[in-house]
Amino acid sequence: MEKIQEFIKRPLIAAALGFVLGLIIGLPILGWGLMPVQWKDADPSYLRADIKSDYFCMVADSFARNGDAVVAKSRLEGLGSYSEAKLNSLLPNDCGLTSEEINTFKTALGAVTAPLPGADVAPQPGDKEKSGASPFLLVGLFCLVTVVIGGALAYLFLVKNKKPGTSPTRVQPVSPTTEVSQQDQYATDETSVSEPPVAQFMSTYVAGDDLYDDSFSIDSPSGEFLGECGVSISEIIGVGDPKKVTAIETWLFDKNDIETVTKVLMSQHAYDDPALSQRLASKGEPVLIQPGGRVVLESETLQMEARVVDIIYAQGALPEGSVIDRITIELAIWQK
User: Is the Cα torsion angle 95, 98, 102, 107 positive or negative in sign?
Assistant: First the structure.
């Protein structure tokens, strides 16, 4: 279950799931179930060829009985060019007509002018006004309501629940004038590279931010999307609110890699507890949190260094060094 929750946390995965869910709701449920397309008053020209022939014969038979050429011509106009071709190809015994009836039918249709489509026609007894909201209008209103509700929920969960001071701060890519100082900063670590990172981010967790889950988009200097990275709560201990966080996980997603690399930054207590440490190992490689400590995550085309800038443990009834009160992590990403 934890793996599934971690998987859904990724913005791209969540967007894809939302798209698929929208298709399921829109096509089968709304489009085919609740609001299917219904054709009304369709033109006879949309009929199959065999049914068009039957329709033509019924019109001819009706004319043979009542001799009303105006009605016959208005009915055949709906067939379009098919009626003219069918009329010219009529042979004796077609549609049950004799040669004399066929000639009379052709003469009547050629001599009578039927009312043009769209002309004012007196309403017939029994006609009823058709009213009601268009299905397209209902679908549009439904989509609008869905967007409004989704926006409200996103605001409540992502904005209102964020506590002051815990919002992630993005560090802009290093400018050429500060390249030397940045190189010196990362040259002290064996895993560091000489070039400045393509992106840097700063994320801070403070006790009480139970929804802590920062994610960042990694883009190249030219604006090309390279992947994503982030930091979130990995493990809690104890009971009650706020959550007692004892481990933080950091992850790296590379668009050119099939796997998301994850490492778990554990408190001293979690690291020393064999059972807890083994359970957290299923989420990612366990690493002990140390002030100034650096953790390197590598994917197919990206390398990320997570540096613990500062960490403060909470004081209380739980074992010392078990609950994180505040931690600041800097993420620096390079292209390989």
Answer: negative
- Is the full-model pTM beyond 0.70? no
Classified as helix, coil or strand, 94 is helix
In this prediction, residue 128 carries a pLDDT of 41
Phi, psi angles (nearest 5°) of residue 33: -100, -70
Cβ neighbors of 216 (< 8 A, separation 6 or more) are 168, 170, 199, 201, 228, 229, 230, 331
Inter-residue contact 257 to 299 (CB < 8 Å): yes
In Å, how far from its chain's centre is CA 157?
19
Helix 81-88 with 69-77: angle, nearest 10 deg: 120
Strands 225-237 and 213-219, how do they pair?
A: antiparallel
Backbone φ and ψ for 62, nearest 5 degrees, come out as -65, -40
**What's the token pair of residue 136?**
């397209």
- How many alpha carbons fall within 13 Å on the CB side of residue 49? 2
Residue 129 Cα distances to 124, 133, 138, angstroms: 12, 13, 20
How far from the centroid of its chain's Cα atoms is residue 245's Cα? 32
What is the crossing angle of helices 49-66 and 69-77, to 10°?
Answer: 170
> 301: how many CB neighbours lie within 10 A of its CB?
14
Contact status, residue 246 vs residue 323, Cβ threshold 8 Å: yes
If you write DSSP's letter for every residue of 262-312 in order, what string do you get? EEEEE-HHHHH-HHHHHHHTTTSEEEE--TT-EEEEE-SSEEEEEEEEEEE
Tens of pLDDT along 165-179? 334 434 344 333 333
| Secondary structure letter of residue 158 according to DSSP | I
Buried-exposed string 215-224: b where 16+ CB fall within 10 A, e elsewhere: bbbbeeeeee
pLDDT digits (tens, 9 = 90+) for 191-212: 445 689 999 999 999 999 999 9
Sheet strands side by side (includes 225-237): 213-219, 225-237, 244-254, 261-266, 285-288
Residue in the structure block whose two tokens are 């090309």? 224
